[in-house]
Structures are given as C-alpha cells and as structure tokens.
Design brief:
CATH topology of the largest domain: TerB-like
Number of helices: 7
Number of strands: 4
Helix content: 40-55%
CATH class of the largest domain: Mainly Alpha
Distance between the termini: 67 Å
Shape: elongated
Number of domains: 2
Radius of gyration: 25 Å
Length: 217
C-alpha cells in the first residue's frame, strides 16, 4: 500500500475529434490540464504544481501530448488529398491548355478517383478557363504567381502527412495528365516543378520522376 504518493486531478478545458495513434482512427478527445498533489492515504496534503495540458482519447483513455492534434483526422486528410488532386489537375490543365480531350479525360478520372465523384471534363475545362479569365493568365503559359500560391495553399498542409511514396505518387499522377496529349511542354514542366516543390520533393527527384512517367510501365 502506498501511504505517500503524487496524484493528479485533471480538469477538462476543451474537446473535439482527433486521430488517435493508439486506436488508429478518428476518436473524440478531451483536452485536460492537471494539478499534482501529494497525498497521504489518499488525502490531499500539498500542491505539487500543475501539469499538462494533455489530450485524452475518449475511447482508449490514453494521454497524448497536444502535438497529436496537429495530425489531421482521417476525414480531414481525405478532404485535403481530394482538394490537392483537384488543384494539381487544374494547374496542369492550365499549363497545357484545355483543347486536348485526352488530357481532360485523364484529369477528370484522377479527380473522380480522389473523391469528386461527379467531376466531368466539361466542368474542369470551364474552371480552368474561369481561373484564367479571373487572373488574366494565358492558357498554356508558365505557372503564374496566383496559381503558384493556390498550389502551395493546397499542398503545403498536406505534404508533412504524406509518406515519400505518397508525395511521389501525386506528382506522377500530375505528370500523366500532362503526358496524356504528348510530351511535356515548357509550361507543363514549370507547373510540375512547382507541384514538386510544394510537395517538398527535391529538384533531382522531380526530374527523375518526370522522366519515369514517360516510360510505359
């Protein structure tokens, strides 16, 4: 029997949903702060200061550091990946133009596979042309400032949560859209290099992957 011991009294200060690394899925959580006390036979005697905050999983009851909340939930991650694929497809189409039916079909197939089930070639073409009109950008031109910003906004939050193979897969998917109607144009290479940089893929690996995408599997 422990006569003297340190006990922590936890107080909830917030809640929400997070990806629990212990459970391996999305769970509810409570954010807790605690006060440590020295107890004698279970009776609190002296304050030993505060501790926490911590995140407690509502399912497994394990405690984690608050940095666990930086990891997106499964639902949030799926939405981030879906939006990233959509943005990348638009960027590649803007670089190559929307006159190629095969490129539009390849882009639409990639976007549908990412989660936009109803995406059509006509919708993508209309979006690309609307973006060009809004920014004053010429279709088929190099990746401008506005498009570069959009790519970074979509890819910067996602990249840290993708394994290297996942980041490379996203770039290869973009490369195949560009190659659907023939060899890379300079504007397409520029857009793909911007995608690679936003995915934190080094320039040498971007060159390697773009060359690999040209080789039939």
């Amino acid at each position: 029997m422990h006569i003297l011991r340190i006990r922590t009294a936890w107080t909830p200060v917030g809640d929400g949903e997070f990806y629990c690394p212990g459970c391996g899925g999305d769970r509810n959580y409570q954010r807790l702060t605690g006060r440590r006390r020295l107890t004698l036979l279970g009776v609190p005697l002296l304050s030993r200061g505060s501790t926490g905050p911590v995140v407690e999983c509502a399912a497994c009851r394990h405690h984690y550091g608050t940095d666990v909340l930086d990891h997106p939930t499964t639902r949030r991650f799926s939405a981030m990946l879906r939006d990233a694929v959509h943005t990348v497809a638009l960027a590649v189409l803007a670089a190559g133009g929307t006159s190629s039916r095969t490129a539009l079909e390849s882009a639409a197939a990639a976007v549908r596979a990412a989660g936009f089930d109803g995406c059509t070639e006509e919708q993508l073409a209309a979006l690309v042309e609307a973006l060009a009109a809004d920014t004053g950008r010429v279709l088929g031109g190099e990746c401008g400032t506005s498009l570069t910003i959009e790519l970074h906004e979509a890819l910067d939050p996602l990249a840290p949560h993708l394994a290297p193979a996942g980041r490379e897969s996203l770039l290869l998917q973009a490369a195949r859209i560009a190659l659907a109607d023939g060899p890379y144009t300079p504007a397409e290479r520029d857009a793909l290099a911007t995608v690679g940089a936003a995915l934190t893929i080094c320039a040498d690996d971007v060159t390697r992957l773009l060359a690999a995408a040209r080789t039939p599997s």
